[in-house]
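Deliverable D4.2, example record:
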Amino acid sequence: MSTKIFAHRGASKYAPENTMAAFRLAELMQADGIETDVQLTKDQVPVIIHDESINRTTNKRGLVRNLTYDELRQADAGAWFSRDYAGEQIISLDDFLKWIKPTSMLLNLELKTNKYPYQGIERIVLDLLDLHAMKDRTMISSFNADTIRRIADLDPIIDTGFLTSRRPRQLFALMEDMGAKALHPKFRLLNKKLIQECLQHNVPIRVYTVNQPVYILRALEAGCDVIISDVPDRALELKKGYITS
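Output generated by the structure prediction step:
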């Protein structure tokens, strides 16, 4: 079974999403990779956070693009989840790459440009991946076709994935036009026809976000290249049982 299990925002069922606590737990669980999100601060620092604002996952308020990195570091990004995680901080992509590089894990960076098309984020992220020699272990995904196009233009070799929660018309022609090498669909889109089409077009399929055992097993049976899950431990255990059954 070649399916890899990626921890969605880290092991985000058990620790506050996109924090070092969640990432370290994913490593401890032996996840094959980590999926995480990148936004850009007011002072052009790429940071690891899912939402365009810090309201939901910190004790402060504001848009990431309107705050400096130093200002973001003052926010508590763990206490909302549990008092046990009070003091967790929003981290920079630079610090995250320093942490993940010595591990064996793969990386899926989602550039969050579907609401705010952060100017220059593609080049900034690629430069950091170059700096840390992480390009060969990284896939870059986005819901924004223009972001995928820019990444593909700047670096035709790096792995790119088109994120989608719906089935666009002429999906594979669209992916070819934007330069996407893989499809990252929402799990409910997964069916035999899509799997067959991906095989015909030699397009890897990396499905998100799969947490329930019945759906994890369905994705394993479908032969998805990657399963992205909030519960990587559960997915890994089911994968082990699937292999031996």
